Amino acid sequence: MTWEDLAKAKREAVFNKIPKEWVIEVPPVEEAPNPRVLLDKLLPDEENAITDSTAMELLDKMKTGELKAIDVATAFCHRAALAHQVINCCSEIFFERAFARAKELDEYYEKTGELYGPLHGIPVSLKDQVNLEGIDSALGFLSRVNKPKTKDDESVIATILYNAGAVFYVKTTTPMAMMSGETYSNIYGQTYNGWNRRLSPGGSSGGESSLIASKGSLIGLSTDLGGSIRIPAAFNGLFALRASWGRLPYCKVDNTMAFQPVAPSVIGPSARDRNDLVHLVKTIIDTEPWFVDPKTPPIPWRPYSVPEKLVFGFYKTNKVTTPHPPVMRAMELIKEKLVAAGHEVIEWDPPVSHKFIKERLREIFVAENYNEITKECAITGEPKIPQLVEAWGLKGELTVSEHWEQARIQYETQQKYFKYWMDTAKSTSTGRPVDAWLTPVWETVSSIAGNPRYDKVSSYTYAVNYLNLCSVVTPITFVDKTVDVPVTDFQGYDESDDALQQTYDPELVDGMPVAVQVICQRYEEEKALEIAGVVYKATH
Amino acid sequence: MTWEDLAKAKREAVFNKIPKEWVIEVPPVEEAPNPRVLLDKLLPDEENAITDSTAMELLDKMKTGELKAIDVATAFCHRAALAHQVINCCSEIFFERAFARAKELDEYYEKTGELYGPLHGIPVSLKDQVNLEGIDSALGFLSRVNKPKTKDDESVIATILYNAGAVFYVKTTTPMAMMSGETYSNIYGQTYNGWNRRLSPGGSSGGESSLIASKGSLIGLSTDLGGSIRIPAAFNGLFALRASWGRLPYCKVDNTMAFQPVAPSVIGPSARDRNDLVHLVKTIIDTEPWFVDPKTPPIPWRPYSVPEKLVFGFYKTNKVTTPHPPVMRAMELIKEKLVAAGHEVIEWDPPVSHKFIKERLREIFVAENYNEITKECAITGEPKIPQLVEAWGLKGELTVSEHWEQARIQYETQQKYFKYWMDTAKSTSTGRPVDAWLTPVWETVSSIAGNPRYDKVSSYTYAVNYLNLCSVVTPITFVDKTVDVPVTDFQGYDESDDALQQTYDPELVDGMPVAVQVICQRYEEEKALEIAGVVYKATH
């Protein structure tokens, strides 16, 4: 079988998991560019009411018996089925399991009058990397298709969520090897944005974020090695947590280059509602996952009370590249609103160039020369996806000494950066170091889906990965083409920056969400989540 | 200058830091085999009273004004000077700083009536790796001699202790590169045991442990990559903490292969008194070192209350090698006493062979083929020490993929081992998993100093390093040659085990201390320290 045939068969197998009554004829993009609007029309009102709710609202209704888990599961399975047909976001569909699980939970509720757990009946979508028994984790490789995982392979975090009452129903698309800011693979082709069928969902968690944005999911798990939770969350207008290394258990979540120990990938949730996000994270941490995952530090959930006055570190650009006008406006807006709300905003001017950080991090990512990716591709003969090849320069596999030297440079950079952060206490009015650092997520708010990559020049996500900080993506506003006009006489930092700025097309991205990162120090997830709430409230 | 000349000059420079009035003629070993006894005779009574105290006792006396910091500093400098002449344990001597610091502290006390900090006036000895401004950190390499560290190089943990009022006065010997269970270098030659001048102090922190055992120090900092805190602590009858990775800040502590990220070295204290050990660890953690060291997880000090009934995992041998008779007796003694005290002791039978763990860990240690060590030696032409060369097989430098594969195997082994540990809850009477696991530290209680190495077959320390557990070395008893007789008709696990058993010489090690490890799970340092107290009390 050629890899093309294998891909076609897999796509069809996934499609065939959609009940016939939910199969639609998808209107052309021109007629229905916005998946959210299209799906709202296609879904029955009572199901729209469910998919428009937050998880907390659904939990309340299931607690009083007003809603059943099976109603919730049905609504989200139906909407996810529609979403998949429109934006191609699911790598696996297994609604029958969701219905069975929901019925079990309903029976439990009927018997006991209690919810089964803190996530009783809440549908949780999972990036393809999260292992479930009997289901593939292809990671965008044809070589891994039709190789279902065993019970023993099941991801620790999936077991935790399941035991808390979550309902699993879909896994979501990734680019090959998750090594791309776009979501394209030879298996599934292109995934589209949840707000605009012309646009990219970002990557690598593009399937996850676009599904949640299209309201085919409330909340789901993504991963982030260099920005893969945050880019798609921003492109799709979601809240998302990129936690510090190991804070949430990654144990038995599949990955490529999975055991790279210097700047590892992390797992974290994306959601439309911030309280839902907090609830999910707290639920996981409250199970004390450090007794199961040897890489999770034993840090319990520590409630954070927001002080009256916060101090924010702030810049509009990182002096490497210049964000597009709507992102610049969002940054201005935050600053203005936070100051108006009585907070302090000080200039963020770290002693390490973000270009340096980006280059060092990328060298870590390619330290084994993509040998694993090359091997996986060779199994079926599929080509590397262009997004992968174009984005990264390979220079041969490093030796152990060279790799340890990378670790040294990283550690020394962290020391320098953290010292800068702590020393800000000398110049804040509160006497505390900066509470959170505000920065764009990405230079753009999205781009044409499948577009040639421009992320050679992107640089806003990497510092969090390289330094091991925590970041909450926070939606701020929407593009308004009448306000967010191109800069005339733009003078960038260099030619790449000029070229990037020229890709801004207000007509194309009009109405798209714009988000920022609220970044706190290592393992300050509780704090970052609360401060994200302050930032959101100030701007809404 | 030849490396031999350089070594001689460095040794003389260190020796010349000893005030003339403290220089002694050292009696031959036959006349004064026990350094503790010899030093007790040489030191004035009022100084013996100080060096016989615990840190907590000295703090109490300095608080009431009964003692001054300068008295304490003088007593310990004097005794350390004598100890160095007898057992060759100091790599650096800088008493003048200690006196100046002590005077400062006394002035502070006179002015305020308060102690300067929780370690006011407490002399703390430091393994050579800990950086202080103006002093070498040679790590047993002649290439690093006469290259004093700068202010900016100073170890984070040294600054923390200094700011708490500690008094620094000596640094202590290590073998070349710290890669040995013996303490020998081309700079300083052989260091001897604090209890017996014929015997090895263990390694790599042999200088530190033998100085403390000889009462030339109360407490000090050592490091542990494969057993280097624990082996010398056991050989010298001390309490010692081998903490989990990063729990205590290693930032700017010098090392070879310092940025190896898979099974890193840790820093931790050794002391004669368990309460002193706890006080030091708590003092460090209470400063929130995670805001300074990017590798320290933000885990505050969490007091642990010992429940009425503890459950211990227990074995006398790990099925790889058989400890010598005194160690076996110590294990029997613990079991008997703990059961008599109402605790439960269950068989420890982990699903992973300790031979496997040892082999995998050693492969990680030599992943860069000792290239750094080879380079350091080449600078001055000094030869690798035999202990280093004999102990480890080099097979060439690994690639990054091979190194990541090591990380994969380790992580999967950890998962398996931790599952075993957690599952013991099913068979304990408390319903909790085993609270602590008791095991020998080492097969022997020491051996002839400079002896050809037998640690190819040793295997009791590695599991803690490979799995990232925490361990408290706890002194239990002393060798009694009339009781601890050689096993007749010994049948070992293999030929190496037979050969190891034959090295047991009750006459040689009579009177030497015997210790065990009290091991708890990752980052359970507070618990391990408390349970070590239970084990100590039960056997004393």
From TrEMBL, chains A, B:
It comes from the Eukaryota. Residues 72-528 form the Amidase domain. The keyword Lyase does not apply. SUPFAM superfamilies: Amidase signature (AS) enzymes. InterPro entries: Amidase_dom, AS_sf. One of its GO terms (molecular function) is hydrolase activity. Belongs to the amidase family. This is Acetamidase.
